[in-house]
């Protein structure tokens, strides 16, 4: 993989020229910043910035003003290759709070679309419906120990399901009637990258190939829908697994959160 070329393609398709990810969302391009206003229930974020040292602080202040006036929390998606080099420090100085860094990892979809292998007694629930989203939220709450965040994620996905169901795919690994792992795939029209999100497995079932099975299932879907690449924002717990599967690290992304 030509890492620089793919990273430039990712920046162009999913940051600079990205379409809104929901019917109620709006993407604005103002100066050196691309932002999404997701409305009351959707995800609001600064998706891309092309800033220099002279204008960075004013651009950050403008985003705080814009979202603050609307009472919106928002996320500034910072990447390690963004400029200026001290942008992360400037975001902290402006009052945004950094969460755990994640690694942007990419793989060819076709290379990951292998047969799904599951432990005995485990099956995949693949219906993308309200029940599946609720099961996904339950699995991720148990996997990550963040029930409030999982509930908020489920509410956002239900809104997305109602507005743009073709962009969302949910899969939940079940042991009998118990959700033990879950993940989703998000796809936008006109881009080359299918986004893989989630993949958390409850502790008792880790190390048994379930995460790999969820990747393979979604990769097969991505190939069928014409998406060349898979993209993951990987936590440190999943990065080694993805590296073994053949994913390539392109950058490090840190979500900076702002609460008005």
TrEMBL record:
One of its GO terms (molecular function) is acyltransferase activity, transferring groups other than amino-acyl groups. It comes from Kitasatospora acidiphila. This is GNAT family N-acetyltransferase. Residues 131-260 form the N-acetyltransferase domain. It comes from the Bacteria. Pfam families: Acetyltransf_1. The keyword Glycosyltransferase does not apply. Gene3D superfamilies: 3.40.630.30. Keywords: Transferase.
């Amino acid at each position: 993989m030509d890492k620089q070329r793919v990273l430039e393609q990712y920046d162009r398709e999913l940051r600079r020229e990205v379409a809104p990810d929901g019917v109620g969302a709006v993407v604005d391009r103002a100066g050196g910043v691309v932002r999404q206003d997701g409305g009351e229930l959707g995800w609001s974020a600064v998706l891309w910035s092309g800033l220099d040292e002279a204008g960075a602080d004013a651009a950050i202040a403008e985003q705080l003003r814009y979202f603050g006036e609307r009472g919106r929390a928002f996320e500034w998606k910072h990447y390690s290759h963004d400029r200026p080099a001290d942008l992360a420090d400037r975001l902290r100085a402006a009052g945004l709070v950094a969460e755990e860094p994640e690694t942007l990892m990419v793989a060819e979809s076709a290379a990951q679309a292998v047969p799904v292998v599951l432990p005995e007694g485990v099956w995949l629930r693949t219906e993308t419906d309200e029940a599946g989203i609720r099961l996904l939220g339950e699995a991720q709450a148990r996997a990550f120990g963040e029930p409030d965040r999982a509930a908020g994620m489920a509410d956002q996905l239900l809104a997305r399901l109602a507005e743009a169901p073709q962009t969302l795919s949910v899969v939940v690994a079940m042991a009998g009637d118990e959700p033990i792992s879950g993940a989703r795939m998000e796809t936008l029209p006109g881009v080359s990258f299918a986004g893989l999100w989630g993949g958390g497995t409850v502790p008792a079932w880790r190390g048994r190939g379930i995460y790999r099975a969820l990747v393979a299932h979604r990769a097969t879907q991505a190939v069928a829908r014409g998406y060349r690449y898979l993209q993951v924002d990987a936590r440190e717990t999943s990065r080694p697994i993805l590296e073994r599967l053949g994913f390539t690290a392109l950058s490090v992304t840190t979500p900076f959160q702002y609460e008005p």
